[in-house]
Design brief:
The chain contains 2 helices and 3 strands, in the order H-H-E-E-E. By secondary structure, the protein is an alpha+beta fold. The radius of gyration is 23 Å and the shape is elongated.
C-alpha cells in the first residue's frame, strides 16, 4: 500500500512538471521555455533529493540514517591479498592497497 502511494505521488508530480513545461514553452517560446524547463527539472531533482517523496519511511530512498532500523551493520574492510582486517589505507601485514568491504 505504501508503494502505491509513492507511485501515485510520483506520477502526479511528473504530470505537473510536464504540464508546466508545456505551458512555459507555449507562452515563452522555444528557447526561453527550454531553458526554463532545464532549470525546472534540475530543481525537481534537487527537491526530491532533499525532501523525498516517502516521508513515512524517512525519505525517498528509505531510511535517512546510515543503517536501517532492523540491522545495525558496520562495514569491515578485508585485504584482498592476505585476508587480514584493514582499518587504514594499507594493510599492515602485507602492505597492499587493495581491500574489499564486508558487512557484518
Amino acid at each position: 500500500m505504501q508503494n502505491s502511494k509513492l507511485v501515485k505521488r510520483g506520477l502526479l508530480f511528473a504530470f505537473a512538471i510536464m504540464g508546466a513545461s508545456m505551458l512555459a514553452t507555449y507562452f515563452l517560446g522555444f528557447v526561453i521555455g527550454f531553458m526554463l524547463n532545464v532549470f525546472m527539472f534540475i530543481g525537481v531533482i534537487l527537491y526530491i533529493q532533499r525532501k523525498g517523496f516517502n516521508l513515512e519511511r524517512g525519505g525517498y530512498y528509505g531510511s535517512s540514517s546510515s543503517g536501517s532500523a532492523d540491522f545495525n551493520t558496520k562495514p569491515i574492510y578485508v585485504c584482498l591479498a592476505c585476508g587480514n582486517k584493514v582499518s587504514e589505507r594499507t594493510c599492515r601485514k602485507c602492505g597492499s592497497h587493495m581491500k574489499k568491504v564486508v558487512f557484518k
